[in-house]
Amino acid sequence: MNITKLKVSAEIEHIKAIMSGYQAYQILTAALGLKVFDWLESRGSAHHEEITASLGINGMFSRSFLQSLVDMKLLVKTGENYSNSPIASSVLISSSLGYQGDWFKNTGSPTSKWSDLTETLLAKEPSISEFNAGPSKKFIQAIAQRSLQGELQAVTSAIRSWEGFSQASSLIDIGGGHGLYTIALCQSHPTLQGLVFDKPHVIGFANEFIEHYGLSERISTQGGDALSDNLGTGFDIAIIAHLLYKFRKQLPEFFRQLNSTVKPGGIIVSNHWFCNPGCVMEEDGAGVQNLERAIQSSGHPLCHSEEFSALFKQNGFSIIYKLDMPSAYGTSQLHIAVKNDH
Ligand SMILES: C[S@@+](CC[C@H](N)C(=O)[O-])C[C@H]1O[C@@H](n2cnc3c(N)ncnc32)[C@H](O)[C@@H]1O
Which atom of ligand 1 is closest in space to residue 239's alpha carbon? Predict the structure, then answer.
C-alpha cells in the first residue's frame, strides 16, 4: 500500500509505445487534412513560419507538429526549412498514382469498424449495411488505393499470363467497385472491352476512375445486385475480388449462375482471403493483421479452401492456377479456373 515503493517505469514505457502509435496516426491524419504534403510538394521547401501562416496552424503547435513529421520520416528539415521526404513524395501526394492517403484515413474515419472497436467486438453479427447504404465513395477510394499496394499488380499479372488473354475480347468485374482491375487489364490489351458490375450507387464512383484513365470507350458499368440480377452471358473473363465474404452461405447459387456468365474456354478469377484449415490462428505477431482481415471480410475470411475449389468443378470449371497473392493484410488466394467445353 506504500505508494513510494510502486515501480511502473518498464511497464508504462510499453504502454506509452502503444499510445504513440495512436498519436502518430492522428498526426499523419491531420497533416493529410491540412494538405501539408501537397502544399510542400508544390513549393519544394519552405520556412516553418511560412508553412504555419499558409496552412493556418496555431504557432504554439507548429514547431512540435512539424518536428513530429520529421521524426516520423515524412518531412526533412534543413535549417529552418522543411520539405517532403521521399516517402511522403511517393505515397502522400494526392495527385500521384501511388497516393495512399484515403486508405490511411479510412481506418480512423467515424464509419470505420476500428473507430469503435468495442462495439465491433461486441456485435453478435457483423453489421452488414443495407444494400444501398454502402460502400461510400471514400471507402471505394480507400479500397482502390489498397489494391494498388501490390495486390492488383499481382492479380492482373497472373491473368495476363493466362494463354487465352491476348485473344480475350470481353471481361466482367463483379463487385468491381473502383474498376481498377478492369482499367489495368484494358491498359494491357488494346481491344479488350470491360464491364464493371456493382451496386447502382457505386457505378458513379467507378465511372470517375474510368474517365480519369480515358477508357470510357472500352469500359462500361452496370448497376445491380450480383446475387439476384442477371450478370449477362458469354464473357471471356469474370473477376470476383473480395466480394464473396458476404455471400458465404449462398456460394453454390452464386457459382451456378457464373456458369453462363463465362463462355467455354473463358476463365473465372477469384481473389479472396481464406482462413487456415480448421480456422486456427497462425503465428504470434499476426493478430492485428488477422483482426483487420476479419473486419474487412464481414467477420471472417472464407473457410474450407477445398470446398471452395470443389465449387469450380461442380459448375463446369477446371482450376488452372491457385496462387498466393500479396495483399495489404497478408496473403489472399487467387483461383483461376477455365470453363470446360462440355
Ligand atoms: C471490398 S469491395 C472490393 C472491390 C474490388 N473488387 C477490389 O477487390 O478491390 C466489394 C465490392 O462489392 C460490391 N458489392 C457488395 N455487394 C454487392 C452486391 N450484392 N451486388 C453487386 N456488388 C456488390 C461493393 O459495392 C464493393 O464495391
Answer: 6
Joined together, the cell numbers standing for residue 75 give 518531412
Given the CA of residue 134, which atom of ligand 1 is nearest to it? 25
**How many other CB atoms are found less than 10 A from the CB of residue 16?**
10
Query: Which residue's C-alpha comes closest to atom 7 of ligand 1?
Result: 241
Query: Per residue in 33-57, pLDDT tens?
Result: 999 999 999 999 999 999 999 999 9
> Could you tell me the pLDDT band of residue 21, with boundaries at 50, 70 and 90?
very high
What are the two backbone dihedrals, phi and then psi, of residue 111, each rounded to the nearest 5 degrees? -90, -5
Q: Which atom of ligand 1 is nearest to the CA of 227?
A: 19
Closest residue to atom 5 of ligand 1, CA basis:
176
**pTM for the whole structure:** 0.94
Pairwise CA distance, residues 185 & 187, whole Å: 5
Percent of the chain past pLDDT 70, that is, above it, reads 97
- Phi-psi group of 232: left, alpha or beta (phi > 0 → left; psi -120 to 50 → alpha; rest → beta): left
Question: What is the pLDDT at residue 107?
Answer: 97
Lateral strand order in the sheet of 193-198: 219-223, 193-198, 170-174, 235-241, 262-272, 330-339, 317-327
Q: If you measure from the C-alpha of residue 332 to the centroid of ligand 1, how many angstroms do you get, rounded to a whole number?
A: 16
Task: For residue 246, give the ligand 1 atom closest to its CA.
Answer: 16
In the chain the domains, ranked by start, together with CATH numbers, are 3-94 (1.10.10.10), 137-339 (3.40.50.150)
E strands in 245-307: 262-272
Ligand 1 pocket list (CB less than 6 A): 135, 143, 147, 175-177, 198-199, 202, 225-227, 241-243, 246
| 283-319 tens-digit pLDDT | 778 899 999 999 999 888 898 888 999 999 999 999 9
Number of neighbouring beta carbons within 10 Å of residue 266: 21
